[in-house]
Amino acid sequence: MKQPQxxxxxxxxxxxxxxxxPAAAGTDDSEAADDPARLSLRRLDAKRFALLEPFTAIDRxxxxxxxxxxxxxxxxxxxxxxxxxxxxxxxxFLEAHNLLGELALEEEDLSLAQGHxxxxxxIGMGSLPPGFKGRLPANKEYNGPFFLAGRxxxxxxxxxxxxDKGRExxxxxxxxxxxxxxxxxxxxxxxxxxxxx
Length: 197
Prior knowledge:
By secondary structure, this protein is mainly α. It has a single domain, classed as Tetratricopeptide repeat domain (Serine Threonine Protein Phosphatase 5, Tetratricopeptide repeat), CATH 1.25.40.10. 57% of the residues lie in helices and 4% in strands. It has nine helices and two strands; from the N terminus they run αββαααααααα. Strands 1-2 form a two-stranded antiparallel ribbon. The radius of gyration is 16 Å and the shape is globular. Residues 1-9 and 11-33 have low confidence and may be disordered.
């Protein structure tokens, strides 16, 4: 099965397709349903929010578990085909996008990995209302896969020499969760790398 042809988004390589409409101000499931790649957002308290896993992804938990077994068993091509099917059926399935990114990294294809991680990152960003000033704790609900995607695309950008773009992604994630230690560590490493030059 071949991956569908995609157009580039801001953080993705030239082999990826934009899926998001401009995010609407509301945060309920009916608006998320207007765009299959837009995730719902739930208020946790006055300032904290959580992205919610799409129902189609919840329904496919067994499928993603099978894919992980395929990867562990070295059946990478079959796993990739299954993941491509899962994301074509559920574009907001961030875990499947992230696994595709990991598989691309295993094959040392930074451009493809950047595309997969970037696709998932843009889905998360596109699910936030315009002017969003809240916090997205990385350890809550579906925020984890979103942050994993953001770290993945930032690492790919940096590895490909696009340090400013990688820093921009990390700084955006740091605004969404200032307590996320992996993001802070990556920003420190990037600053030290810049100072060493």
